[in-house]
Design brief:
single chain, mainly alpha
């Protein structure tokens, strides 16, 4: 049975949530480099020294915003996987990719907080690692589950690449860190990594308006691209 929280604990949680919400608002207005605890305190009607009862520093607040952003993105992608559990693997990959894109377009400042230019003077602690891998591991899970069901076809017509011994050793280490990673051959793992990075590259280009003068139908470009990567991976249902 969960222990009932005291009024003091509830008040602390509320104030901490207010600090994070104001930090998110300032992130959208000034960017991560412009985030200031003094400004956050002022907007909440607090003296700046009082903020340190709830967060240790500006970097602590930034870390909380980063973890929250990663978790929010992870929630979106994992929800996509749950809702598409019975769909063909290629369709699951495409839906998960669109979940990433939709989240980024709705929360561009948070997207760039976790995938944009590093904040000067800030080094992300290990606390961000677990949340930071949720979205990518969800994508890998699609391929692992498809492979377990015999729904990945790495036929001779699919592209392959020459790999160095150093890269295959890297893949061996990576494979051991993935649940069900023994299902991923070197060429399949390479195809997944290429598809993953291309997906986030397209999202970054769109959110930063880099494809504005290239196409008008950004969603259609993204959809076609992620369907192509699904086919390159060899996921069943790709067309």
């Amino acid at each position: 049975m969960a222990k009932e929280r005291t009024p003091r604990q509830l008040a602390r949680e509320r104030i901490t949530a207010d600090l994070i919400e104001e930090g998110r608002r300032q992130l959208a207005e000034h960017g991560a480099a412009g985030l200031s605890l003094r400004s956050v305190a002022r907007e909440l009607g607090m003296v700046s020294s009082a903020v340190y009862r709830y967060v240790d520093s500006r970097d602590d607040l930034l870390t909380r915003l980063i973890v929250e952003a990663y978790d929010s993105l992870g929630d979106a992608v994992e929800a996509s996987l749950e809702s598409s559990a019975t769909a063909a693997p290629a369709d699951r990959w495409v839906r998960a990719a669109h979940a990433v894109r939709d989240w980024a377009l709705e929360r561009p400042h948070e997207y760039f907080l976790i995938f944009g230019t590093p904040v000067p003077g800030y080094a992300a602690p290990e606390a961000t690692a677990v949340a930071g891998t949720r979205a990518s591991l969800a994508l890998v899970r699609i391929v692992v589950e498809a492979s377990e069901r015999g729904q990945v076809d790495r036929n001779p017509g699919l592209p392959t690449a020459r790999m160095s011994e150093e890269l295959t050793e890297d893949f061996s280490v990576l494979r051991r860190s993935i649940e069900g990673g023994d299902q991923l051959s070197d060429d399949l793992l390479l195809a997944v990594l290429v598809g993953w990075t291309q997906m986030f590259g397209l999202v970054s280009f769109e959110v930063s308006n880099q494809t504005r003068s290239v196409v008008e139908n950004h969603r259609d470009l993204f959809d076609s691209a992620v369907r192509l990567t699904a086919a390159q991976i060899g996921l069943a249902g790709a067309n």
